[in-house]
Structure formats: C-alpha cells, structure tokens
Amino acid sequence: MTAVLRLALAAWLLAIASPAIAGPATVAAASSLQFAFPELIERFRAQGGAPVRINYGASGNFRRQIAQGAPFELFLSADEQSVLALDEEGFTEDAGVVYAVGRLAWIQPPGRGALPSEEDALSAVESAIATHRAGEGRPRLALANPEHAPYGIAARQALQQAGLWEASAPLRVMGENVSQAARFALADEARGGLVAYSLALAPTLAERAEVVLIPDDRHAPLRQRMALMPDAGASARALYAWLQGKEAREILARFGFQPPTLPQAPADAS
C-alpha cells in the first residue's frame, strides 16, 4: 500500500470513528448533583472520557422533556419513578441502575435560630409556625416543588408524617428544583428549608448554612436511578459505565450520597 493510500485510509477511519468516540455526551442530571457532577466529569475526562454537556433541573421536568423528544443521551434522576416510567413508555434503553441513595436535610442561615437536633429535626418548622400564629412574623420555609422534584416529595412526606404539612402552608416557598430551594432557604426572610444533603455539603453553601440530617425513616428512600436513551452514543455509554465504578461512588459519597447497596430491582412505582 502506498503512503498516499495509507494516509487516505487513516483519514477515513478517523472520520467514521470520531463521532462515536469523541462526541460529547449529552446528560440530564438532577439538581441534587449540581456540585458533585463537575468533579465526576473532571475525573472521567482525566481518564480519557469525552466531553460532557450537562443540564441540571428537576427530575420530573426532565421526564416530560425526554418523553417529548428532548435529545438527551443519559438521564440521572433524583428518584426511581421518573426513569421507570420512561422505560415503561419505551423512551429509555432499559430500566437502568440505581447509582446513589440521597438524603434529605434541614438547612438554615447561621444565627437564624436554634439548629434542630436530628432526633427533633423539624422543630425549626414548628417554631416558624408558632411565630406566624402569634403574629410575630412570617418566616419562610423552603422546599422543592413536590409536583416534579423528588426531594420536594420527600420534604412533603416528612412534614406530613410530623403533622406539619397543612400548618406550614402559609410559610412555604417552592423552588423549581432542589438547588433553587436551597437558595431560598438561605434568603433573608427564610427560617430555613428542606433540601438535598449533597447541596448542603457543597463549599459554596456549607460556609453559609447550618445543617442537620432528616432521619431517613421520615420519607420514602431517595433511590436515584439513571438510564441511557436507546440512541445514546459511545461517549454517553462510557460515562454511564464509569459512574457505576468505585471512584465515582467515592466522589458521590463525599457529597452525602449513600452507595446503592439496596437491591437493583426496580421499586414499586405506584
């Protein structure tokens, strides 16, 4: 084979291989991953992974967007139900896997009041309700909108279990997603809020917030599931596989996510 033919063959092979190997992975990720995911991407890229185009938002909104044809290749949800519903409707390649288990936390600005103990984690909510009923102010309580945010659903469940859901209604302010709820929780007029523990551990929030974990028996488990779309490219598939490995799970653990030690069989989505 002449040198010219060899060069032509190499150029042709590169042209057909590049889209599969080097094309960026397009990812939809729950807002609870907003601070953990940049480190995950950095490590993935350092090990030869392709670039990643990342979009953060509420899992329920992504579920609707994917069903409407949004061109995501990989979806990391903050719950299981959003992924399982898409799988049942044929929009994902399969039911995917649980990649982490999240935790709900109460956060509040420093000096805004006594920080609750974990045993009485919602005492700050009770205090805010008492303040409002006494006509002494309207301290806001932030959470993600439970209509489409899994951490909002968990917050509602915790408040309902404590008998505080209805009483807290005049004080609640809803974030479009859990990241926005965390910002609302630290605003001047807020008493605090119920948000993802992973956000509370992020340096930009940790230095501005006090935090206490909500016991995980106060709400349904926040089992976070991810899945590929049927037309996902090689880059997204490589990222999907890497996120199931030891290094990715160690990074997620530093941001407050528990490893997916529970059985991988889909939970009842009813």
From TrEMBL:
Signal peptide boundaries: 1-22
SUPFAM superfamilies linked to this entry: Periplasmic binding protein-like II
Pfam families recorded: SBP_bac_11
Metal-binding recorded as keyword: yes
Keywords recorded for this protein, A-Z: Metal-binding, Signal
InterPro entries for the chain: ModA (IPR005950), ModA/WtpA (IPR050682)
Top-level taxon in the UniProt lineage: Bacteria
Metal-binding among keywords: yes
PANTHER family, alphabetized: MOLYBDATE-BINDING PERIPLASMIC PROTEIN (PTHR30632), TUNGSTATE_MOLYBDATE_CHROMATE-BINDING PROTEIN MODA (PTHR30632:SF14)
Family per similarity comment: Belongs to the bacterial solute-binding protein ModA family.
NCBIfam families, alphabetized: modA
Record's protein name: Molybdate ABC transporter substrate-binding protein
Source organism of this protein record: Halomonas saccharevitans
Encoding gene, per UniProt annotation: modA
